[in-house]
Amino acid sequence: MSFPKVLLTVGFISLFHSAFSAAQHRSYLRITSQEFTTLPLDIVIQAVGSLFAVMWGVMCIAGNLREIQAAAELNNIAWETQMNVPSFYMFNHRLRAMESSYIPTSGKGDLENLE
User: What does the subunit comment say (predicted)?
Assistant: First the structure.
């Protein structure tokens, strides 16, 4: 095993032990009817030290980061087909009114007069 893996394992065990010690301290205070103010310094130091050991071990084990290419699937598509979006096709627009053979359809008011 490598050193970061050992450090990570020891850090997790130490972090679990500090949490267990904190719970035991709270139950001791309840049994003796004392008020809880703060945790003892040795538990706090153990928790913070083991937290840093776990973080350092995880950073060493994780390895190097790789770049995420958001447009990786678009690299194989030709430029002409990228802009071809059929859902944006529109055939009912005002340019049709400029045609010489255009006959306007009945409006909303004309539809009410139909029998």
Answer: Component of the ER membrane protein complex (EMC).
Sort 4 into a burial class: Cβ within 10 Å, 0-12 / 13-18 / 19+: middle
Shortest CA distance to 5 belongs to which of 76, 54, 63, 42?
54
Handedness of CA 81, 82, 87, 92 (dihedral sign): negative
In this structure, the chain runs to a length of 115
Query: Are residues 43 and 22 in contact, defined by beta-carbon separation less than 8 angstroms?
Result: yes
Where does residue 105 fall: left (phi above 0), alpha (psi -120 to 50 degrees), or beta otherwise? beta
Predicted TM-score (pTM) of this structure: 0.54
Secondary structure, 3-state, the chain: CCHHHHHHHHHHHHHHHHHHHHHHHHHHHHHCCCCCCCCCHHHHHHHHHHHHHHHHHHHHHHCCCCCCCCCCCCCCCCHHHHCCCHHHCCCCCHHHHHCCCCCCCCCHHHHHCCC
How do residues 99-108 score in pLDDT, each as one tens digit? 777 666 666 5
